[in-house]
Amino acid sequence: QTPDCSITDFRKSHTLSYLVKELEVRMDLKAKIPDDHARKILLSRIKNYTIPEEEIGSFLFHAINKPNAPVWLILNEAGLYWRAVGNSTFAIACLQRALNLAPVQYQDIPLVNLANLLIHYGLHLDATKLLLQALAVNSSEPLTFLSLGNAYLALKNVSGALEAFRQALKLTTRCPECESSLKLIRCMQFYPFLYNITSSVCSGTVVEESNGSDEVEKSEETKMSEEILALVDEFQQAWPLEGLGGTLEMKGRRLDLQGIRVLKKGPQDGVAKSSCYGDCRSEDDEATEWITFQVKRVKKPKGDHKKPPGKKVEASQAENGQRYQANLEITGPKVASPGPQEKKRDYQSMGWPSPDECLKLRWVELTAIVSTWLAVSSKNIDITEHIDFATPIQQPAMEPLCNGNLPTSMHTLDHLHGVSNRASLHYTGESQLTEVLQNLGKDQYPQQSLEQIGTRIAKVLEKNQTSWVLSSMAALYWRVKGQGKKAIDCLRQALHYAPHQMKDVPLISLANILHNAKLWNDAVVVATMAVEIAPHFAVNHFTLGNVYVAMEEFEKALVWYESTLKLQPEFVPAKNRIQTIQCHLMLKKGRRSP
Fold it and tell me: Which overall architecture, per CATH, does domain 17-208 show?
């Protein structure tokens, strides 16, 4: 006999059921993959390694039917049992019911177990969603942060993993897993191209990309990797890794390296006489300099190696050289040159951080796409008057569809390439807006699943295709689902019917889609229109600033982030981006003043 979690007399709790409902039909969870780690935990609970798994299953079966402890705890153990066996279907069933029965303050326990099941199956992005919900319930459990760090690390979200492991270490005196993972992160920071870390797509998430290079380039990359590793190993003899810090510039990405140790060499024997961290200046040592350690690829003549037949190298020599270029910038003391020292600039009076402050600041990942959303409530519109959140849904699930053949008008912006060619957009979607969508009626009604929200919007939109409010809500749904064409269909419809003073709501959504699709010129046009219609909304200014950052028009981006703060002085994302851009302009370009 094995634990059966299919009994139906449990009370239902719908607050978190939407998180795991979709897991029941996931085909990638159907494979049987035993979890040795779960088995060790299960056996450690009974403290007897001689009991076979069958007897453990029988014990749990009887415990569920005649419980002498809270049923949710027994179901949680049953979920652990099925994880160890490798039956994900039964494990999900047990943990889902444990989640339904657990008191609110303990719901993080089955959520973390579910997340670790997903991690075992390689579904790291799904796992992060569950772990973030678990942290919302209880943020004092180090295991939750450890699991989140592991998921982020698998997704190559280095900054997210680093923060998660640090939080875990703050909550426990000993975390070997955290320490070993932090070493891996250090390697990722040093050699990002070895781990295929390129750019972020949302909220700091780093994705793995294929650069389309052929076999020759891959073999050369491996050789180049070995050369750089050897070079850095030699460099580390004078700059120990234990005290590493500063910044690493690699393939256009700037990464913080914590705690560089600066060694002062003796004038005669070269032996280190003292060391310091970070800003090493003292009252007697006013001068500092940037020391650049550069690794650059030198292409061999074409005759030095043979290309495999049928292969063609299209990248230019300059492009290949640039691909493997890295700068490691460190601060350290220097011997002042003869003559009077230059007066120290007062960066604070200019409103910019000093170079030394830039080293200590946590830089924002400017390549990350930050999604923005202008709610209709900003126009004094109550969304619950347009969408019925109260009536239980009786019908099958629906999705909100707009008129894709709406005739071109002066309002639909079909003159823009991204709008007229919306069927062929390279749009990755904006899943980070899921919570916004699910909380549309949160002031009066509980949070709903994505499927429920989509059905409710579809029901009313089907009866009223001329409502710009409903079309805008449908566009938000398709932004979350990653369907750019359907989202723009709805935004064209919203723009066609919206009064002029309301058009900035669909315009901001359209600007985000075009930004995500890398159609930055179109995005600038649309976001500028939104600012012109409603210059008093900070989100419109912030959205335009984000587009200019993507275009690397940093000075223009600064203008719009600063105007954002004039409207909303405590808007932290704008503050952080301003500081990052200022440091980027000063340090990367060698500028010592604005």
Answer: Alpha Horseshoe (1.25)
